[in-house]
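INFO  loader      accepted 1 record
INFO  loader      residues=83
INFO  predictor   begin
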Amino acid sequence: MNWWSLAIYAVLVAIGWAGVLVEFVRPGWVLPGAAGGVALVFGLFRLYPGHVLLAAGVSAPFLVIAFWMLAIGLRARRNKRTL
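INFO  predictor   done
INFO  writer      dumping tokens
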């Protein structure tokens, strides 16, 4: 892999992370989050070819943060309905 392809995949990871972050900041914007998730996974798996466990380990913290923020959002939505 040359440095151009590494740079492209690193940019894909950055764009993917930003897309997922936009979806968390603006929950109604689903498309940036979906596209960001695809770009993030594609970039991670291409940056670490043959190292699926390493790529999964790198993306695991994002998964934990995503579920934590989803739980907060669902709880807030449920509390808003009870008012």
